[in-house]
Design a protein that fits this description.
The chain is of the alpha+beta class. It has helices at 2-12, 23-30, 34-46, 64-75, 77-93, 135-142, 168-181, 223-243; strands at residues 50-52, 59-61, 96-103, 106-113, 128-129, 184-187, 194-203, 207-217.
């Protein structure tokens, strides 16, 4: 079992936002020896689970990872129920609709439907996104605690722009407001000039299942537009939540 545990430790390094790994980098990341890492990588390469660049000798994930991801997305009720409303939001509002979930204390960018005003900021489906600086992350953490308990993201709160929240005190205050209103907003906190709005998706028992949001260039959205977006997002979230078994969606009007 230890051999399997070490192999998984190496393979799990490829689930981080770092897409390419050298043997040396994996040794530093996992604490395993070079010979041990090399043997594990060779096994994964021969099985097609990893690909080795013949020039740099670095490793990236292989094609079977796409098949696994496809099976996961196809089997998840949250994704199946969210994709239709997300397509409508992106088509009707011209902004990019995104879906995120919590995975082991991190925010996973699960699904994206690009709108006409799409801005490429380097976020990709399957990437981990910073919770403290994103509307999706704020919603997920604001509602992840039970009995009103507020849970904060762990680790250092990195500053991405002058608007990024970097203290636990300020983030706590904002998450409390998000929990009260059922909506999170960001104003250039991850990328200068980029705004976002997000709301929770609930499942059976009114538990948090995920968060749906809109991402947009800030100059294209005024205060009136933002209010309209919130209503549309809450309508979509209410629809998805009902299909996931939530009896009540407590935010926004019917």
């Amino acid at each position: 079992m230890k051999a399997l545990s070490n192999a998984l430790k190496v393979y799990n390094a490829f689930t981080t936002n770092r897409g390419r790994w050298s043997v040396t980098g994996l040794c530093e990341h996992t604490g395993l020896t070079k010979s041990h890492v090399s043997r594990i990588l060779a096994e994964f390469r021969d099985a097609g689970l990893l690909i080795q660049d013949p020039d740099t000798r670095e490793y990236t994930v292989g094609l079977p990872a796409i098949t696994l991801a496809g099976h996961f997305l196809g089997s998840q009720p949250l994704v199946r129920e969210a994709v239709g409303p997300m397509r409508r939001l992106a088509a009707e509002l011209d902004h990019t609709a995104v879906l995120g979930v919590l995975n082991e204390g991190q925010v996973l960018h699960l699904l994206e439907v690009q709108g006409a005003h799409f801005t490429d900021v380097g976020m990709r489906v399957g990437m981990v996104v910073p919770a403290h600086a994103t509307a999706i992350g704020k919603v997920l953490f604001a509602f992840s605690g039970s009995n009103g308990e507020l849970i904060l993201p762990e680790g250092e709160y990195s500053r991405f722009t002058p608007n990024t929240i970097t203290t636990r005190r300020d983030l706590t205050a904002e998450l409390r407001q998000v929990r009260k209103e059922g909506v999170a907003r960001t104003e250039g906190e991850t990328v200068v000039g980029l705004g976002a709005t997000a709301v929770p998706i609930l499942e059976r028992g009114e538990r948090i299942a995920g968060a749906i949001g809109l991402v947009f260039p800030r100059h294209t959205v005024n205060a009136k537009d933002r209010d309209a977006h919130i209503k549309r997002l809450q309508g979509a979230a209410r629809e998805i939540s009902g299909r996931l078994g939530a009896v009540v969606y407590p935010f926004g009007g019917l």
